[in-house]
Every structure is written in structure tokens, then in C-alpha cells.
Design brief:
6 strands, about 425 residues, mainly alpha, two-stranded antiparallel sheet, two-stranded parallel sheet, about 60% helix
């Protein structure tokens, strides 16, 4: 019999039961659910809402259930719908009448709200730690490539010379911002909804400050209706993760290009590449491609939750159950494998420098040379454009033009132009 079956005269239809059940995915919350229940039971005992010995029995039973779940000794039931009712039913089976008192002064609405907040609160530091590990790899690659000259691009066209180190630190700055967004989300969600009840608290003298402190929250939430219906923190998390995945996807796109034969700027380690079932020469950047692909799923999770929440009246609605699958899928980000792929790739410095020597990427520096000789930039720009056009016709680069070629277009050029156009000078 379901724990809420008193008012009903019929058994739930199997189709409805299967459709309504969330145990298939919210079983992941068993640690958070048990932690919330222990904090609630201890508060009930301390405030005298239930007898102290009953609270002790409940807490002991919950700790034993946690140990058995960790050991694989508990089987969850679809009949009990979700992780909350599964654990309560198991507790009552083990400790009897005391187990039935656990849900005093509590609703599944504030119970699931605290479980989900606890989960996100615990996952964010783990994700931040993974981003920091990636940052360490970026720093390592940057330090090793301070003098590795390569082309910088705009519009995917060679633009100006830069270094591989500078490229790595551009991404390091992106991921630094991702960390601050996750930290902001963590700061805002650090409030405990336990004690809000279904929507209007309860008539029991609950101590919400005790449960908030026991669960590691900074304070209780302020409004009970908002407490059970708020998923802003989940949307914020998905937003921060979407931006993080966008950065990873951009990086993946560069790596996919760089390891192609057309670029050959990097060589992926065999352990982080795959082959083809038909083409024996292939070495595919599957890790980068999967990261790029998973980005779309994370975006989808954000849009899912925004869409679910956009028209819900206060307070709790079953629609909100859709939040957990979106959160669970998004937090399983691919940072460790991406960091390992990046850490093990080999930089092809000679190929990068060869590419930097072509494409007229020192043209801006040539214009600046003329500006330093007193010419207005727009006039200098036009002169260098004519030089580039000449090079295209003759097959030269700016570096290989003779001084006579330079002076035929502008008398301001002198022998020091070659030093000004050298890649090292430009960088």
C-alpha cells in the first residue's frame, strides 16, 4: 500500500504508476535524502515533537539503510514511486512504529527541495575542482610553449602572429569566469527549505535553524511557498554549465581543426584517439567531438527546465520533477577526460611556426612601421595592401620582398623594415 493511499478507494493504474514514478533516476539522491531525514529526525526529537528515543531509533535505522544501500543490499521498488518513499518504507519495515513518525512536520515537497539543493550544493565544488584541474593543464601547456609561435585567427583566416601559450591562456580566462559563475550559484542556493512543509509550514514548533545548520546550509529559506517551488538555483547551475560547455566546445573545435592534416598543429595521444573500422590510416579526435556533441545536451537541459518552470503557479507542481534528470545529466560533465586529452597531446611547434610565416600575418606590423615613420594609419594601411597584392602576384611574402620593392611603393621604407616584420618582433 502506498504511503499516501488513505483517501483513495482504487489502486493506482500500472500505467500511471510507471509514468509517475521517479525512482529510476532520483535514486541518485539517496545520500541527500537520508542526510535530510536524519537532520529532520534529530530536530523532531530535540524539540519534543516526537520522543527522543524514537528519534534515536529513526536515526540509527537511517544510518543502517545508508550502509546497506552503499553495499548494494537494498532494492528500490517502483511501487514506492521515489527515493523518499522507498527509504521511508524501508525504515518503517525495519524499525516499526517509530519509522512512521519520521514524516511528522514534513512534506515530500520540502523533502525533495532540500535533497535537490543538497545535491547541487555538493556537486558544484566537485565541478569547480575539475575546472581547476583543467586550468593546471592549461598553465602547464602555456609554460612549455611561451616561445611557440603560431598564427592567430579572425574569421578562421590567419590574422596576426601569437603564441600557443597565449592561446592556452585565453581559454584559461574563460574557465576562470566559469568558476566564478559556479561560485555565485553556490552562494545563492545556500539556504535550507526543510520545514517549509507542502507550502505553508506546519503547526509544529520546528527549529529550521537547527536543520539548516545540521545540513551545512548558511540559513533557512525565507518564504515557505518559494522554498518548495523555487528551482532558480538549478536553472543557474544549468546556465553556468551551458556556458562552461560552450567554452569546452569551442576548444574542442580548435583541437579538431589543429589535429587535422590541413593544420597538423597538434598530435593527439593514441590513448585519447580512436580509429576507423574501414580506413586504417585514420586517427579520430572522438573525445573532442563528443564534448562538442554533449554541449547540445546541456543546452537542452537548460531549455527544458526554463520551459518547465515558465508557467507554473505557486507552489509545488509535479512538473518540477523534471528538474532532476536535467540536473543529473548536466553535472556529468566531461572535464576529466578533456583535461587528460589536452595534457597528453603533442604540440607541433615547427608546423605552427611555418604557418605563422605565411598568410601575411605581419601586415599590421608593416602598417605600424609606417605609422611610426609619421604616416597616417589609413595611408599606411593602403600602402601595405598594395604590397600584399604584389606578393600575391609574385609568390613572395612581405619578408622576402627586396628593399627596392618596398621603396617602389613608399620611400619611408628602410632596411630596418625586415626587423620590424620578423615574427619574433611581431609577437
Amino acid at each position: 500500500m502506498k504511503l499516501w493511499a488513505g483517501r483513495f478507494q482504487k489502486e493506482t493504474d500500472t500505467l500511471v504508476n510507471d509514468f509517475n514514478s521517479s525512482i529510476g533516476f532520483d535514486a541518485r539522491l539517496y545520500r541527500q535524502d537520508i542526510a535530510g531525514s536524519i537532520a529532520h529526525a534529530e530536530m523532531l526529537g530535540k524539540t519534543g515533537i516526537i520522543e527522543a528515543h524514537e528519534a534515536e531509533t529513526i536515526v540509527t535505522g537511517l544510518k543502517a539503510i545508508l550502509a546497506d544501500i552503499e553495499a548494494g543490499g537494498v532494492e528500490f521498488s517502483l511501487e514506492n514511486e521515489d527515493i523518499h518513499m522507498n527509504i521511508e518504507a524501508e525504515l518503517t519495515r525495519r524499525v516499526g512504529e517509530a519509522g512512521k513518525r519520521l514524516h511528522t512536520a514534513r512534506s515530500r515537497n520540502d523533502q525533495v527541495a532540500v535533497d535537490t539543493r543538497l545535491y547541487v550544493k555538493q556537486e558544484i565544488p566537485a565541478i569547480i575542482a575539475q575546472v581547476l584541474d583543467l586550468e593546471k593543464v592549461l598553465m602547464k601547456k602555456a609554460r612549455a610553449n611561451l616561445d611557440t609561435v603560431m598564427p592567430g585567427y579572425t574569421h578562421l583566416q590567419r590574422a596576426q602572429p601569437t603564441t600557443f601559450a597565449h592561446y592556452m591562456m585565453a581559454y584559461a580566462n574563460m574557465f576562470k569566469r566559469d568558476i566564478t559563475r559556479l561560485e555565485d550559484c553556490l552562494d545563492r542556493l545556500d539556504e535550507c527549505p526543510l520545514g517549509a512543509g507542502a507550502l505553508a509550514t506546519s503547526t509544529y514548533p520546528v527549529d529550521r535553524f537547527q536543520t539548516a545548520a545540521a545540513l551545512g546550509f548558511a540559513k533557512p529559506t525565507d518564504n515557505s511557498m518559494d522554498s518548495v517551488s523555487d528551482r532558480d538555483y538549478a536553472i543557474e547551475l544549468l546556465s553556468a554549465l551551458s556556458i562552461l560547455m560552450m567554452h569546452l566546445s569551442r576548444f574542442s573545435e580548435e583541437i579538431i581543426l589543429w589535429c587535422s592534416w590541413e593544420f597538423k598543429y597538434v598530435e593527439l595521444d593514441d590513448a585519447y584517439s580512436t580509429g576507423s573500422s574501414i580506413m586504417p590510416q585514420k586517427k579520430n579526435p572522438d573525445v573532442a567531438e563528443l564534448v562538442r556533441g554533449k554541449t547540445g545536451r546541456v543546452y537542452g537541459n537548460l531549455v527544458t527546465l526554463l520551459t518547465v518552470m515558465k508557467a507554473l503557479p505557486l507552489a509545488y507542481n509535479k512538473d518540477i520533477q523534471q528538474d532532476q534528470e536535467a540536473i543529473f545529466d548536466a553535472v556529468d560533465v566531461c572535464l576529466p577526460v578533456f583535461a587528460a586529452m589536452l595534457d597528453t597531446l603533442t604540440v607541433q611547434a615547427k608546423n605552427m611556426r611555418k604557418a605563422a610565416a605565411g598568410g601575411f600575418i605581419n601586415a599590421t606590423d608593416c602598417a605600424d612601421y609606417l605609422v611610426k615613420k609619421g604616416l597616417p594609419f589609413r595611408e599606411a594601411y593602403m600602402i601595405v595592401g598594395r604590397l600584399v597584392n604584389l606578393c600575391i602576384k609574385t609568390g613572395d611574402t612581405l619578408d622576402t620582398l627586396t628593399l627596392r620593392d618596398f621603396r617602389a611603393i613608399s620611400g619611408l621604407f628602410d632596411a630596418d623594415v625586415y626587423q620590424a616584420l620578423a615574427l619574433k618582433t611581431c609577437v
